[in-house]
Predict the structure.
Amino acid sequence: TGKQCSDPYDCPFVSFCKTQESPEPQHPIELLPDSAGKALARTLREGKGYTSILEPAPEELVGKAAALYARMQDAHRGGRAILEPGAREVLRRFGYPRYYFDFEGIDLPVPRWIGVRPYEHVPFQWSCHIEREPGVLAHAEFLDLSGEDPSLRCIDAMSLAIDPDDGGPIFVYHAPYERGRLEQLADRRPDHAELLQRYIDRLVDLLPLVKENFYDPRMRGSFSIKKVLPVIADDLRYDELDEVQEGTGAQVAYLKAIFDRPDPGRMADLDRKLRLYCRQDTWAMVEIVYFLGQCARPARPVEDEVRHIRGGRAWSSLDRVRRGSMAIADDRWFEQVPPPLRRGVAR
């Protein structure tokens, strides 16, 4: 079986053909990650007949990611996770406050807003867990379901949550996405370009740090944050979230909100599910940093104490859904005043 079984049409005999195939090995060589890993797996399968990641000799696992491949092989052979000590030393170099940040964006083929190109990603939501000192965490978030261009509100909310001048690292997972969104926002809002460049300069990508230092066979060759989180914190799973469980689901929920304009109850439901999902992403980064640093798991801010604020006053849930908002969890929240905006100060 293969791609030909579903392209251009689904074949009705797939289930029969699968019964004729040899069983796949428990640890297939195709677990080697990324395009280079897949190419190496194909070379070893076609050239040497290897089907399992356990078969190659160490010298056959070559390339820039050879150390990663060897770690994966050792982990699958031993049936255990491997955590290198180097991550702890790397993380010690970063001071406080620390920001754990994630965007959600939409890329419409036909732009809805002036100045946006086809398929340009426009962030409509972000979540940020803020660690002002070790173990002291708060949460800020932004979500705009108004249907208007969320860009300026997004930037203004960031300027309140993330101090442009404190120099604290902004941890992200797969930095090209967050960097790309910040660069595009700067292009379309040049009056905020200096602020956004300060944020870009402070981005710290956790994905390569995980790849260089950790692997668990249960990740099955994937370093997606959705595969890493359950193996380091088994009580936190994306498949237990309702409706919005990954980025595509977040985009679908956003499109339902701005195009369908559902009744207030459904709108509030979409709002809640989007916030829970994005919040999970940034809390996952906190868990990853503590795990790589070999620290005890942190205490999570009480999310039901989130206070949603905009324009210097609290809004009702319905106002929040209609207008878009920023929110801060715990008892730390930031003053907001009408433009010109004043930098947020933790209380």
About this structure: The chain has two domains: 20-80, 89-208+236-328. Residues 147 and 258 are 5 Å apart (CA to CA). DSSP finds twelve helices and ten strands in the chain.
